[in-house]
Amino acid sequence: MRSVFSLLFLLAASVTPALAFCGAHTHLDRRAEGEAVEISSFGYTGTNGPLLWTQLDTANNGLCSTGSNQSPINMVEGQFQLISGSDIELTIPDVPEGAPFENLGTNVEVVMKDVGGQFVLEGKNYTLEQFHFHHPSEHVDNNVSLPMEMHMVFSTEAEEIAVIGVYIDLVDVVSVLELHILPRAVPSNLLETIFSSVGEIATPGTSTTTKPLIMSEVVTLLKGGNFQRYTGSLTTPPCSENVEWSVATEKLLLSKATYQAARDVIGFNARFPQNNLGEPNLLAIAMAGAQVSAETPVESPVEAPANTTAVRRRQRLQKKRGTSVE
C-alpha cells in the first residue's frame, strides 16, 4: 500500500507551476511609488503551502525542497554562534512621520527602505528594507514555539541579505497602580503602535501609514542581549540560501488584546522548522521515502492457515470409514 508521502508527492506533481515570482515585495523587490500592493502568490496551507512551494515555480523555488541550509530551524546548542548584542553595530532612526504599513496577503509589512537603518555584520554594511511578522514564530526557541516573530530584513548594495529575528511573547496589561506598586513587564510601545493600525489593512492588497515609530526602543532592547548567529535561507519562496540570520535572545512583548487583533489579520503564516543545518532537506527525505514505497510491490493477501486440529480430526474419522481425504 502506498504511503501518505507517496500520495503527497503525487499531488505535488499535479500542481500547475506559477509563472510569477513568489517573493512579491516581501524582501528586495522594490515597488515604484504609488504602485498597488501586490498580493503574494504563495501561501501556508493547502496546495500553495510550504510542502509544495517548489511546484509553484520549479525554475526558481527548487531550494525549498532540496536546500540543506534552510530556515527556520530549532535554535538549540550547536546550531548557532552566540554573539553579544553590545558587539553589534545596529542603528535605526525613529520615524516621527510614520512608515508605510502593507498587507501582502501572506504577511503585514512595515516598509523602512528610506529610513536609513544600518546593520554592520562581519564588516559589511546592511540597510534596513522592511520588517514583517510571522504567527506563530518560525524559529523554535530550544523546542519552544512563541506566539509571534518579527523579521527585520537588511540588504547590501550587492543584494546580500541579513535578517534579525525577534521573538514576540504575550503579557497581561497592568494598571498604573499595579505598575507603581510592583514593577511589571509591559507591552512594547513599538508593537502596540504598529498594530493599532492593523485593522486598517485587514484586506490583502491594502496599505496605510503607521503612527510615529520609536525605533530606539527595539535597538536598545536588542543590544542589551545576545544574538544567535547562523547562515540559513529565506523562509519564503524562493528559499534562497546564504542569508545571515541573527536571532535575538531578548523578546518583545505584546498585550493579549493587541495580539488577537494582529492575529486575526495576519492569520497562520509560519513555515515549518527545517532540518539541522547541513543535513538533507526534509522534503527530499520524504520524496525518497515516497519513491521507495511506490516501487515496493504490493503483496497478495495471504490466506489464513487451516485449522490443523480440525483437519486431523477429519483425517481420523475418514480413516475409520475407509475414505480418503479430499
Overview of the molecule:
By secondary structure, the protein is of the alpha+beta class. It has one domain (4-293): Carbonic Anhydrase II (Roll), CATH 3.10.200.10. It has 9 helices and 14 strands. The chain is globular, with a radius of gyration of 27 Å. The two termini are 36 Å apart.
Task: Describe the structure in brief.
This is Carbonic anhydrase. This protein is α+β, with helices and mostly antiparallel strands and 326 residues long.
Describe the structure using short key phrases.
Carbonic Anhydrase II, 326 residues, twelve-stranded mixed beta sheet, disordered N terminus
- Parts with pLDDT < 50 across at least 5 consecutive residues: 1-25
Query: What is the average per-residue confidence, as pLDDT, rounded to a whole number?
Result: 85
Q: Give the termini separation.
A: 36 Å
Number of domains: 1
Shape label: globular
* CATH fourth-tier homologous superfamily: Alpha carbonic anhydrase
H/E topology pattern: HHHEEEEEEEEEEHHEHEEEHHH
What is the CATH architecture annotation?
Roll
Largest sheet: 12 strands, mixed
Instruction: Report the C-alpha radius of gyration, rounded.
Output: 27 Å
**Highest CATH level, the class:** Alpha Beta
Total of DSSP H or I helical runs spanning 4+ residues = 9
Would you give the CATH topology? Answer: Carbonic Anhydrase II
Helix content: 10-25%
Protein name: Carbonic anhydrase
